[in-house]
Amino acid sequence: MKRELYIKSEVDRHRLHVLILTPENQPRAVVQICHGMSEHKERYLPFMEYLQNRGYAAVIHDHRGHGKSIEREDDLGYFYDTSGRAVVEDAHQVTEWIKMEFPGLPVHLFGHSMGSLIVRCYLKKYDWELSSLTVCGSPSKNPLAKPAAGMAKIACRICGDRKKGLFFHKLAFGAFNKQLKDGESLNGWISYDKDNVRKYDEEPLDGFVFTNNGFLNLFHLMDETYSRRGWEKKKTDLPILFIAGEDDPCIISQKQFWNAVSFLKELGYADTKGKLYPGCRHEILNESCSGQIYKEILGFIE
User: Fold this and answer.
1) Of 78, 97, 102, 77, whose CA–CA distance to 9 is shortest?
2) What is the tens place of the pLDDT at every residue in 230-268?
3) What domains sit in the chain, N to C, each tagged with a CATH number?
4) N or C: which end of the chain has fewer CB within 10 A?
5) Whether the predicted pLDDT of 183 surpasses 70
6) If pLDDT is split at 50, 70 and 90, which confidence band does 176 have?
7) Would you tell me the crossing angle of helices 212-225 and 166-173 to the nearest 10 degrees?
């Protein structure tokens, strides 16, 4: 069964659009998904249907400033917040809704790209809510995140917080195009699958440029993810899996990918492991080997 509904954020009453897929019988568990930057939740329907067909409920919401979680059409990339915390608390609120809707069932959290930042900021306070965490396509640590947040704050004040952050977009993604061949879409870095890139290019709810406010929140998330401050660590035996494509520019390098894995281990999350997939770019769920990756994620959460 497929359901859609709105819930109101406890942070500021902002409306969040939620999509739920459930199997015919009682679900074995619930997989909660946090999508990435500048995309919408329906892109995860194939993965959700895979989980549904194997007895799992799958739940995803559009982050504030994405998909149907906007107040007006030109608010794509605007977060209605300046701290980077609201989007994290929204994700936890969805978990609380899940636990009311599916009492007693384990919750497995999956976050891709920007969503992988959100789920690790979530982990700082709410690790006890989860039965596992999958971190997919994670941006690696960037020492420029904190100064970039300062610049974005100034840009919000001087240029306007709803102004498209073209400078920050180039700063964040300019290097991602270096691996592309002539004639490839500027979004080609997301995937080797040309049909996937074409659909992303053509969809108005994907690939939009964040506002200055959106980049302010993104840089706060990047900084907070790799900060050693604020970790409550109530469930350090939580199973955690990092996955990414070997050719994903977000990870910067394989060394940086493994540094992210080691960071959580050093914090005390001993059951943390990682895997890199050759022949894959950023969106490993949409590459030609996606079937294998679905299967391995399922094996991990089981």
Assistant:
1) 97
2) 999 999 999 999 999 999 999 999 999 999 999 999 999
3) 2-301 (3.40.50.1820)
4) N
5) no
6) confident
7) 40
